[in-house]
């Protein structure tokens, strides 16, 4: 990992973070989207064979495949699913919103009606890897919100099968249907629908760069949760941090892929050196050390600051997906943090805890977007309608205000809509 000062990092940070544009990638993605729009299921089957080398006979996972998957996974995995699912449900239940009404004036009722999104598409990465935890994190909040139709798309493996762990998680979480399709073509299918896959009103879930760019291009025709970038962790560590713990946590993020961003920010050069030593020692024992080394070499940074306050400022500048405060008084310094997807406090709250079992959602804003975005939650699967009810006298009381503003904007038909009711009311009053 490259060691640098805070000022050096500030100078370099403008080009290090944020979403990037790739014209060649976008051309490919747009061709895929157009193909699916025009050719539906035929395009999905053809693209799966062309891009993934997999010839599928059908797209939908059958009930027999679900049952076979559930029977093939271990009892301990079933127990882990239920435990994690319960924790996720308990946490997200606190995010539920209710419809409400108010009466600000006599004869006036205003309010907000909260309703679930009717149909949601969930993308789960797959192929070479398996992410049952993402199944739970994306589906459970949707079920709590009251979404009636939840469709999952996920890439099949080289044999045309879906991971049994993913299917078992989908059954526990409450997915309605699962389809064997991935990449930009899956996003297009969810956005526009095919003969088999229903059009969704919102698409959620992480994916590779093709998935991320496809979500960006279909946004507007359908809602999306976020445009996710590479996974990242920022650890703020003072002299009380355990270097072995910090190193292990940085390595856990680096193993995601070569683009992952592991960052350490510390006011202690001694801690930085100790963590670097631990990384060198621990990496040799890890299975994915080739990926980890590339992540550390390309994107890893150790930033040494003048003070803890400056370290916290750097963390806010980064606005990381995962922020660990491995410092003496994490709760006392929590108020200083304004930009982070998820915040882990102390030496015994490692980021993998949030990935799997703590309860808060692990679908988080990346690439600095935590400065204006939030983790996935129940609120992402709900929409709001404003409620307005005026009685006759209440409308009369506000009529002059409305007509005056409408005329100022040159919208005389708007003014007439109010005036015709006022005239009718005045006539009844005269009678």
Automatic annotation (TrEMBL):
Entry annotated with the keyword GTP-binding: no
Residues reported to bind substrate: 231, 253, 256, 322, 355, 409, 414
GO terms of molecular function: histidinol dehydrogenase activity
CDD domains for the chain: Histidinol_dh
Chain sites annotated for binding NAD(+): 123, 185, 208
Organism superkingdom: Bacteria
Cofactor descriptive note: Binds 1 zinc ion per subunit.
Cofactor(s) this protein requires: Zn(2+)
EC number annotated for this UniProt entry: 1.1.1.23
Keywords noted in UniProt: Amino-acid biosynthesis, Histidine biosynthesis, Metal-binding, NAD, Oxidoreductase, Zinc
Pathways involved: Amino-acid biosynthesis; L-histidine biosynthesis; L-histidine from 5-phospho-alpha-D-ribose 1-diphosphate: step 9/9
Catalytic activity: L-histidinol + 2 NAD(+) + H2O = L-histidine + 2 NADH + 3 H(+)
Positions of the catalytic residues: 321 (proton acceptor), 322 (proton acceptor)
Binding site for Zn(2+): 253, 256, 355, 414
Class of enzymatic activity (EC top level): oxidoreductase
Function: Catalyzes the sequential NAD-dependent oxidations of L-histidinol to L-histidinaldehyde and then to L-histidine.
Family: Belongs to the histidinol dehydrogenase family.
Protein name: Histidinol dehydrogenase
């Amino acid at each position: 990992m490259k060691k640098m000062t805070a000022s050096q990092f500030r100078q370099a940070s403008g080009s290090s973070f944020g979403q990037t544009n790739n014209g060649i990638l976008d051309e490919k993605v747009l061709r895929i989207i157009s193909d699916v729009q025009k050719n539906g299921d035929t395009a999905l089957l053809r693209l799966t064979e062309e891009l993934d080398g997999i010839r599928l006979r059908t797209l939908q996972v059958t009930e027999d495949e679900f049952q076979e998957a559930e029977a093939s996974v271990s009892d301990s995995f079933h127990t882990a699913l239920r435990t994690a699912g319960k924790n996720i449900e308990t946490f997200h239940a606190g995010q539920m919103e209710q419809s409400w009404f108010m009466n600000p004036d006599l004869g006036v009722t205003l309010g907000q009606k909260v309703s679930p999104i009717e149909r949601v598409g969930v993308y789960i990465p797959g192929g070479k890897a398996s992410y049952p935890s993402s199944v739970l994190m994306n589906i459970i909040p949707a079920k709590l919100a009251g979404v009636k139709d939840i469709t999952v798309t996920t890439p099949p493996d080289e044999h045309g099968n879906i991971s049994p762990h993913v299917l078992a998680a989908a059954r526990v979480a409450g997915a309605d249907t699962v389809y064997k399709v991935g990449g930009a073509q899956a996003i297009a299918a969810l956005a526009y629908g095919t003969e088999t896959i229903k059009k969704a009103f919102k698409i959620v879930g992480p994916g590779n760069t093709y998935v991320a760019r496809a979500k960006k291009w279909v946004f507007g025709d359908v809602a999306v949760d976020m445009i996710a970038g590479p996974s990242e962790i920022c650890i703020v560590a003072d002299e009380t941090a355990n270097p072995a713990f910090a190193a292990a946590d940085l390595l856990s993020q680096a193993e995601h892929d070569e683009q992952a961003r592991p960052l350490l920010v510390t006011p202690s050069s001694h801690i930085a050196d100790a963590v670097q030593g631990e990384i060198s020692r621990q990496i040799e024992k890890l299975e994915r050390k080739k990926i980890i080394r590339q992540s550390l070499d390309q994107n890893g940074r150790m930033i040494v600051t003048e003070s803890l306050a400056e370290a916290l400022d750097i963390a806010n500048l980064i606005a990381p997906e995962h922020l660990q405060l491995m410092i003496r008084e994490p709760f006392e310094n929590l108020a200083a943090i304004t930009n982070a997807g998820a915040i882990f406090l102390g030496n015994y709250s490692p980021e993998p805890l949030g990935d799997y079992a703590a309860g808060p959602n692990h679908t988080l804003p990346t690439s600095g977007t935590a400065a204006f975005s939030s983790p996935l939650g129940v609120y992402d699967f709900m929409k709001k309608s404003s409620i307005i009810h005026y009685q006759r006298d209440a409308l009369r009381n506000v009529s002059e205000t409305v007509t005056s503003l409408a005329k100022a904007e040159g919208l005389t038909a708007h003014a007439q809509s109010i005036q015709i009711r006022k005239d009718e009311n005045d006539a009844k009053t005269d009678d």
